[in-house]
Amino acid sequence: MASPSSPKRGRSNDAGKNPDDAKNARSSRPQPEKPGDAPAPVKPIDPLAKPLDPPVKPLDPLAKPLSLDEFAPVQSAAKGRLSTRRKRILVGVVVGLVVAASAGFAASRLLAPPEQPMQTAEVTQGTFEETVSGKGTLEPVRTTIASPEVEGIVESVNVGEGAAVNEGDVLYTLKNDDLDLAVAQANAQLQSARDALTQANNKLKLARTTPSFSEGQDAQGNPVIVNTQPSQISDAESQVNSAKSALDSAQSTYDAAVAKAEKRTVRANMAGTVLASNITAGTSIASLSSANKPPLQLSDMSKLIVKIPVSEVDIAKVKEGQSAHVTFDAVPDLSVPATVTHIAQTNESSSTAASAGSSATAVRYEVTLQIDAPDERLKSGMTARAEIATTTVENALIVPNAAIVREGGKAYVMKAPEEKAPGASQSEEEDLAESLVEVAVEARDNSQSAVRAVSGTLSAGDRLMVASMDAAGASGSPSATDAGTDAGYEASLAW
User: Fold this and answer.
1) Residue 12 maps to a domain
2) In this predicted model, what pLDDT tens digit does every residue of 345-379 receive, in sequence order?
3) Which domain holds residue 195?
4) Which residue of 187, 297, 308, 473 pairs with 134 in a disulfide if CB–CB is 3.0 to 4.6 A?
5) Are residues 330 and 382 in the same domain?
């Protein structure tokens, strides 16, 4: 028997006390529709209505993940068809791709169609190049300054900027009165020395052709006639020798004065192009020196170089002799081949970073590339962007980086599932296992990788599951794909 304090099952206490309330309560219950009655209209949802009490709880991101047994394909795999490690890899790949694809789902579900298939990408085949890139300034392979060795005022200029010159061509001349005076004085001394030598030679000739006698005494004091011609010839020869020495000295002085005066004429010491000119007729060379300006600059533009900084992370990949391609901001449609000719052995920026006390300064090394056949449109000082091919893989299978998931130090891709033929007996987890391919990454860049299959089969034309970049864009995170693959890897470990 029921306790007096407990209500009877199926009856309300309040309804028992007041018959009218019980009648109203019965009348408020929904009555079955009678044949022929029109269906009751459906009330529209009021957007301002009070929310459900209690409200629907959101998913807890810290809640315990679903167990492996709750996934039918993986549950079947756990019964012996797939190894535990392969299960983790499969789940990791799938979860990684799904996490990346859903990174922006919450922001884009109102804009995107409700049903969207998993994105795929096609495996291609061809030559793949892993590159190291950098930006620098275009420079001539050789540059020289055409400066005079003497002071003076520019008297004439024979070339202008952009002019092509050959070695030995006269570029400009100077005027220097002091040098002219020195040449004139040296020339006068030279002429005087020549005249003195001429006179000495004439005396010697006369001494040799004219007998000469004089009165003298012998040892006993007796008068005798003495032949003096030999002594006169000897004296004449001494004068000739002195005149010759004076002439040689005068000649040397004159030659030096002329040579110095000739330096007023400035010639090209190599074939090239006039890259810069700071002179006109009347320009003082002394004033240019004070302003630290070169009178005229010549450059060998037959070959060009560009020097780019390379990070310490990539410098070990760069070798002398490697090929590169160089493009130019000023000539967008031009790409020219280049070769690595020099790699700096010291870091130029390291001392600057140390003196500034900043440990965040990037460590870079200067790499020089040479362009052997430059386009005529190229000019010194242009911005150049170089890509050095550090690794080249011929006939490579090329896949997007978003299709690669790493687990346990290995890389995997998953081929998109194919539609099953009617009556196929192969299970879903077996299809999934065949779709997973372990690959070795041979080279990569920012968006793609060259791979080869280590286990499983992979061919050009296969389609791979990839993380959706649209979702990443919707979420405003450019790294959502990488985050997704990392999350997939972590999820595979959790399983």
Assistant:
1) no
2) 998 755 444 444 545 578 999 999 999 999 999 99
3) 177-263
4) 308
5) yes
